[in-house]
Amino acid sequence: MTLLDIHGLTIRTADGHTLVDDLSLTVAGGERLGLIGESGSGKSLTTLAVLGLLPDGMTVTGSIGLAGTQIVGAREKHLTRVRGRDAAIVFQEPLTALDPLMRVGRQIAEPLARRQGLKGTELQRAVTRALEQVRLPEPDRIARAYPHEISGGQRQRVALAMALACEPKLLIADEPTTALDVSVQAEMLDLIDTLVRERDMAVLFVSHDLAVVARVTDRVLVMKDGRAVEEGDVREIVRRPREEYTRALVGSARRLESALDARRAR
Ligand SMILES: Nc1ncnc2c1ncn2[C@@H]1O[C@H](COP(=O)(O)OP(=O)(O)OP(=O)(O)O)[C@@H](O)[C@H]1O
Protein backbone atom coordinates (compact mmCIF):
# COMPACT_ATOMS: atom_id res chain seq x y z
CA MET A 1 0.00 0.00 0.00
CA THR A 2 1.23 3.50 -0.80
CA LEU A 3 2.44 5.31 2.29
CA LEU A 4 3.84 8.45 0.70
CA ASP A 5 2.36 9.76 -2.50
CA ILE A 6 3.87 12.96 -3.86
CA HIS A 7 2.28 14.28 -7.02
CA GLY A 8 3.29 17.34 -9.02
CA LEU A 9 5.13 18.90 -6.08
CA THR A 10 6.36 22.39 -6.92
CA ILE A 11 8.14 24.59 -4.39
CA ARG A 12 8.81 28.26 -5.08
CA THR A 13 10.47 31.08 -3.20
CA ALA A 14 8.44 34.17 -2.31
CA ASP A 15 9.82 35.92 -5.41
CA GLY A 16 8.65 33.11 -7.68
CA HIS A 17 11.90 31.23 -8.19
CA THR A 18 11.16 27.50 -8.70
CA LEU A 19 13.27 25.22 -6.46
CA VAL A 20 11.39 21.92 -6.88
CA ASP A 21 9.58 21.46 -10.15
CA ASP A 22 6.64 19.10 -10.71
CA LEU A 23 8.11 16.23 -8.71
CA SER A 24 6.18 12.99 -8.29
CA LEU A 25 7.21 9.93 -6.31
CA THR A 26 5.72 7.18 -4.18
CA VAL A 27 6.98 5.09 -1.31
CA ALA A 28 5.05 1.98 -0.32
CA GLY A 29 4.83 0.76 3.29
CA GLY A 30 8.14 -0.91 4.18
CA GLU A 31 9.82 0.25 0.98
CA ARG A 32 13.12 2.15 0.80
CA LEU A 33 13.57 4.93 -1.72
CA GLY A 34 16.82 6.82 -2.19
CA LEU A 35 16.74 10.45 -3.31
CA ILE A 36 19.98 11.35 -4.96
CA GLY A 37 21.40 14.38 -6.74
CA GLU A 38 24.10 16.97 -6.44
CA SER A 39 24.01 19.76 -3.88
CA GLY A 40 21.12 22.17 -4.47
CA SER A 41 19.01 19.74 -6.53
CA GLY A 42 16.06 20.04 -4.13
CA LYS A 43 16.36 16.86 -2.08
CA SER A 44 16.17 18.48 1.35
CA LEU A 45 13.32 20.80 0.43
CA THR A 46 11.35 17.77 -0.77
CA THR A 47 11.81 15.98 2.56
CA LEU A 48 10.97 19.11 4.55
CA ALA A 49 7.79 19.50 2.51
CA VAL A 50 6.73 15.96 3.51
CA LEU A 51 6.60 17.05 7.15
CA GLY A 52 5.26 20.53 6.42
CA LEU A 53 8.53 22.06 7.61
CA LEU A 54 9.41 24.33 4.67
CA PRO A 55 10.80 27.77 5.54
CA ASP A 56 8.26 30.58 5.81
CA GLY A 57 7.51 32.38 2.59
CA MET A 58 7.92 29.39 0.26
CA THR A 59 4.85 28.36 -1.66
CA VAL A 60 3.93 24.77 -2.36
CA THR A 61 1.60 23.37 -4.99
CA GLY A 62 0.79 19.79 -5.90
CA SER A 63 -0.08 17.13 -3.36
CA ILE A 64 1.69 15.12 -0.68
CA GLY A 65 -0.34 12.27 0.76
CA LEU A 66 1.26 10.76 3.85
CA ALA A 67 -0.52 7.81 5.45
CA GLY A 68 -3.85 9.25 4.35
CA THR A 69 -3.20 12.89 5.36
CA GLN A 70 -2.88 15.64 2.76
CA ILE A 71 0.16 17.62 3.88
CA VAL A 72 0.01 20.49 1.40
CA GLY A 73 -2.18 23.15 2.94
CA ALA A 74 -2.70 21.20 6.19
CA ARG A 75 -3.06 23.14 9.42
CA GLU A 76 -0.28 23.11 11.97
CA LYS A 77 -2.35 21.05 14.45
CA HIS A 78 -2.78 18.26 11.88
CA LEU A 79 0.90 18.41 10.98
CA THR A 80 1.88 18.05 14.64
CA ARG A 81 -0.09 14.81 14.78
CA VAL A 82 1.58 13.45 11.66
CA ARG A 83 5.15 14.29 12.72
CA GLY A 84 6.77 11.49 14.65
CA ARG A 85 3.80 9.16 14.22
CA ASP A 86 3.62 8.82 10.43
CA ALA A 87 7.05 10.14 9.51
CA ALA A 88 10.12 11.27 11.41
CA ILE A 89 13.33 12.79 10.14
CA VAL A 90 17.01 12.43 10.95
CA PHE A 91 19.07 15.37 9.70
CA GLN A 92 22.68 15.52 8.56
CA GLU A 93 23.63 17.54 11.62
CA PRO A 94 22.16 15.93 14.76
CA LEU A 95 22.42 19.24 16.64
CA THR A 96 19.57 20.47 14.43
CA ALA A 97 17.27 18.08 16.27
CA LEU A 98 18.81 18.30 19.72
CA ASP A 99 18.33 21.05 22.28
CA PRO A 100 21.80 22.01 23.57
CA LEU A 101 20.44 22.96 27.00
CA MET A 102 18.54 19.78 27.72
CA ARG A 103 19.92 16.43 28.87
CA VAL A 104 19.72 13.74 26.21
CA GLY A 105 17.43 11.51 28.29
CA ARG A 106 14.83 14.24 28.70
CA GLN A 107 14.81 14.89 24.98
CA ILE A 108 14.08 11.24 24.21
CA ALA A 109 11.55 11.09 27.04
CA GLU A 110 9.55 13.98 25.62
CA PRO A 111 8.12 12.22 22.51
CA LEU A 112 7.69 8.97 24.46
CA ALA A 113 5.67 10.73 27.14
CA ARG A 114 3.62 12.67 24.62
CA ARG A 115 2.83 9.83 22.23
CA GLN A 116 2.73 6.81 24.50
CA GLY A 117 1.64 8.46 27.74
CA LEU A 118 4.52 6.93 29.71
CA LYS A 119 5.53 8.32 33.12
CA GLY A 120 8.00 7.80 35.98
CA THR A 121 10.01 4.57 36.06
CA GLU A 122 8.23 3.25 33.01
CA LEU A 123 9.31 6.30 31.05
CA GLN A 124 12.87 6.03 32.34
CA ARG A 125 13.01 2.40 31.25
CA ALA A 126 11.69 3.29 27.81
CA VAL A 127 14.44 5.95 27.45
CA THR A 128 17.13 3.42 28.39
CA ARG A 129 15.63 0.93 25.93
CA ALA A 130 15.56 3.53 23.15
CA LEU A 131 19.26 4.29 23.73
CA GLU A 132 20.14 0.60 23.85
CA GLN A 133 18.28 0.00 20.59
CA VAL A 134 20.60 2.40 18.78
CA ARG A 135 23.52 0.45 20.29
CA LEU A 136 24.71 3.18 22.63
CA PRO A 137 26.88 1.77 25.37
CA GLU A 138 26.23 3.07 28.91
CA PRO A 139 22.73 4.32 28.11
CA ASP A 140 22.27 5.73 31.61
CA ARG A 141 25.38 7.90 31.34
CA ILE A 142 24.34 9.11 27.87
CA ALA A 143 20.84 9.91 29.15
CA ARG A 144 22.33 12.21 31.80
CA ALA A 145 24.69 13.94 29.34
CA TYR A 146 24.10 17.18 27.44
CA PRO A 147 24.49 16.94 23.64
CA HIS A 148 27.95 18.60 23.67
CA GLU A 149 29.23 16.01 26.15
CA ILE A 150 28.90 13.11 23.71
CA SER A 151 30.59 12.44 20.34
CA GLY A 152 29.14 13.35 16.93
CA GLY A 153 28.47 9.67 16.18
CA GLN A 154 26.70 9.25 19.54
CA ARG A 155 24.64 12.39 18.90
CA GLN A 156 23.50 11.01 15.56
CA ARG A 157 22.44 7.77 17.32
CA VAL A 158 20.50 9.83 19.86
CA ALA A 159 18.78 11.72 17.01
CA LEU A 160 17.93 8.35 15.43
CA ALA A 161 16.55 7.09 18.77
CA MET A 162 14.33 10.19 18.94
CA ALA A 163 13.10 9.69 15.40
CA LEU A 164 12.30 6.03 16.10
CA ALA A 165 10.75 6.67 19.52
CA CYS A 166 7.20 6.84 18.18
CA GLU A 167 7.71 4.05 15.65
CA PRO A 168 6.94 6.14 12.57
CA LYS A 169 5.80 4.37 9.42
CA LEU A 170 8.34 6.36 7.38
CA LEU A 171 11.86 7.29 8.41
CA ILE A 172 13.30 10.20 6.47
CA ALA A 173 17.08 10.26 6.65
CA ASP A 174 18.63 13.38 5.13
CA GLU A 175 22.37 12.78 4.62
CA PRO A 176 22.49 11.18 8.08
CA THR A 177 26.11 10.07 7.76
CA THR A 178 27.70 12.94 5.84
CA ALA A 179 28.93 14.79 8.94
CA LEU A 180 30.41 11.64 10.51
CA ASP A 181 33.91 10.18 10.27
CA VAL A 182 34.19 7.56 7.55
CA SER A 183 34.72 4.77 10.11
CA VAL A 184 31.51 5.75 11.95
CA GLN A 185 29.50 6.22 8.71
CA ALA A 186 29.39 2.51 7.86
CA GLU A 187 28.29 1.61 11.40
CA MET A 188 25.51 4.17 11.25
CA LEU A 189 24.28 2.90 7.88
CA ASP A 190 24.25 -0.68 9.16
CA LEU A 191 22.36 0.44 12.24
CA ILE A 192 19.69 2.25 10.21
CA ASP A 193 19.44 -0.76 7.93
CA THR A 194 18.92 -3.18 10.85
CA LEU A 195 16.50 -1.04 12.86
CA VAL A 196 14.35 -0.24 9.86
CA ARG A 197 14.25 -3.88 8.83
CA GLU A 198 13.26 -5.02 12.33
CA ARG A 199 10.39 -2.53 12.37
CA ASP A 200 9.38 -3.01 8.75
CA MET A 201 9.57 0.76 8.29
CA ALA A 202 9.65 2.61 5.00
CA VAL A 203 12.64 4.87 4.33
CA LEU A 204 13.22 7.97 2.25
CA PHE A 205 16.98 8.21 2.23
CA VAL A 206 18.58 11.40 0.91
CA SER A 207 22.19 11.58 -0.17
CA HIS A 208 24.45 13.01 -2.84
CA ASP A 209 26.46 9.78 -2.56
CA LEU A 210 25.22 6.94 -4.74
CA ALA A 211 27.40 4.38 -2.95
CA VAL A 212 25.66 5.24 0.34
CA VAL A 213 22.18 5.14 -1.19
CA ALA A 214 22.89 1.79 -2.87
CA ARG A 215 23.73 0.35 0.51
CA VAL A 216 20.40 1.06 2.17
CA THR A 217 17.74 1.44 -0.51
CA ASP A 218 16.03 -0.69 -3.16
CA ARG A 219 14.91 2.02 -5.52
CA VAL A 220 16.40 5.37 -6.36
CA LEU A 221 15.14 8.64 -7.79
CA VAL A 222 17.73 10.97 -9.29
CA MET A 223 17.11 14.72 -8.99
CA LYS A 224 18.69 17.60 -10.86
CA ASP A 225 17.73 21.28 -10.60
CA GLY A 226 14.54 20.44 -8.71
CA ARG A 227 13.31 17.85 -11.22
CA ALA A 228 13.33 14.06 -11.34
CA VAL A 229 15.61 12.89 -14.13
CA GLU A 230 15.55 9.14 -13.66
CA GLU A 231 14.07 6.54 -11.36
CA GLY A 232 14.44 2.81 -10.94
CA ASP A 233 15.89 -0.19 -9.17
CA VAL A 234 19.14 0.90 -7.55
CA ARG A 235 21.21 -1.97 -9.01
CA GLU A 236 19.74 -1.37 -12.44
CA ILE A 237 20.59 2.35 -12.29
CA VAL A 238 24.15 1.63 -11.20
CA ARG A 239 24.55 -0.95 -13.97
CA ARG A 240 22.74 0.89 -16.76
CA PRO A 241 22.19 4.60 -16.05
CA ARG A 242 20.03 6.02 -18.83
CA GLU A 243 20.58 9.74 -18.37
CA GLU A 244 23.86 11.56 -18.85
CA TYR A 245 23.59 13.15 -15.40
CA THR A 246 23.10 9.76 -13.71
CA ARG A 247 26.03 8.35 -15.69
CA ALA A 248 28.18 11.11 -14.24
CA LEU A 249 26.99 10.28 -10.69
CA VAL A 250 27.69 6.58 -11.23
CA GLY A 251 31.08 7.41 -12.77
CA SER A 252 32.17 9.54 -9.85
CA ALA A 253 30.96 6.94 -7.31
CA ARG A 254 33.00 4.31 -9.20
CA ARG A 255 36.09 6.51 -9.33
CA LEU A 256 35.84 7.04 -5.59
CA GLU A 257 35.44 3.30 -4.95
CA SER A 258 38.46 2.41 -7.07
CA ALA A 259 40.51 5.13 -5.39
CA LEU A 260 39.57 3.62 -2.04
CA ASP A 261 40.35 0.10 -3.30
CA ALA A 262 43.75 1.30 -4.48
CA ARG A 263 44.43 2.77 -1.07
CA ARG A 264 43.34 -0.43 0.71
CA ALA A 265 45.64 -2.45 -1.55
CA ARG A 266 48.65 -0.35 -0.58
N1 LIG B 1 15.36 29.02 2.66
C1 LIG B 1 15.69 29.07 1.37
N2 LIG B 1 15.47 30.20 0.65
C2 LIG B 1 15.78 30.27 -0.67
N3 LIG B 1 16.32 29.26 -1.36
C3 LIG B 1 16.56 28.11 -0.71
C4 LIG B 1 16.26 27.95 0.68
N4 LIG B 1 16.59 26.69 1.06
C5 LIG B 1 17.09 26.09 -0.05
N5 LIG B 1 17.07 26.94 -1.10
C6 LIG B 1 17.52 26.64 -2.48
O1 LIG B 1 16.74 25.59 -2.98
C7 LIG B 1 17.53 24.71 -3.78
C8 LIG B 1 17.38 23.30 -3.30
O2 LIG B 1 17.91 23.20 -1.99
P1 LIG B 1 17.98 21.82 -1.20
O3 LIG B 1 18.54 22.14 0.17
O4 LIG B 1 16.69 21.12 -1.25
O5 LIG B 1 19.06 21.02 -2.04
P2 LIG B 1 19.74 19.62 -1.72
O6 LIG B 1 19.63 18.83 -2.94
O7 LIG B 1 19.19 19.04 -0.46
O8 LIG B 1 21.24 20.06 -1.49
P3 LIG B 1 22.30 19.57 -0.37
O9 LIG B 1 22.71 18.20 -0.77
O10 LIG B 1 23.40 20.57 -0.48
O11 LIG B 1 21.59 19.62 0.95
C9 LIG B 1 18.95 25.27 -3.73
O12 LIG B 1 19.18 26.00 -4.89
C10 LIG B 1 18.95 26.13 -2.51
O13 LIG B 1 19.87 27.19 -2.67
Automatic annotation (TrEMBL):
It comes from Streptomyces acidicola. GO terms for molecular function: ATP binding; ATP hydrolysis activity. It comes from the Bacteria. It is a peripheral membrane protein. Residues 1-250 form the ABC transporter domain. The keyword Nucleotide-binding applies. Belongs to the ABC transporter superfamily. This is ABC transporter ATP-binding protein. Coiled coil: none annotated. It is found in: Cell membrane. GO terms for cellular component: plasma membrane.
